[in-house]
Amino acid sequence: MARITVPEGEGGELIQVWSLSPELGAAVGALSAAVYGDRLVTPRVREVARMRIAQINGCNVCLAWRFPEMADRGVTEALYEHVDDPEAGDYSTQERLAIEYAEKFALDHRSLDDEFFTRMRAEFTDAEILELTAMIGEWLAFGRLNAVLDVAEACAWAPSASV
Questions:
Q1: Is the whole-model pTM more than 0.90?
Q2: Dihedral angle at the C-alpha atoms of 81, 87, 92, 94, nearest 10 degrees?
Q3: Are 108 and 55 in contact (CB under 8 A)?
Q4: Alpha-carbon span 4 to 71, nearest angstrom
């Protein structure tokens, strides 16, 4: 049960929570739509980072959330199997870096040093690094916001269109 009073209404708990602050809710919705829209960061790279944040946040909804419409782009169940142990999985260098980035961003952001970004810049453009950073920040921040407020439907709000 949510730790704040959730107004009754349509759309589920998460939509109604943001009805408490409609302007901020609209901004968060726009950010989420942008994160899940067509981006420079590939769907596979995005998804391994998203799943690592879901694991760190302990969000059962996010852990179960899938995008079946992206199977033709390599986003299959096999992609998620070893996100917590990338050495055991069949990941590209970009995917491994995205997993490492998500983990360090969430658990030890001060370890993101020049050496790490030298490795990132060897595999990603600056625009891709910026996008991935914004994505990870969004998932971490709002996953934790939902966990702290105990909003049951947390990530069910993530749009699946245009992924």
A1: no
A2: 100
A3: no
A4: 38
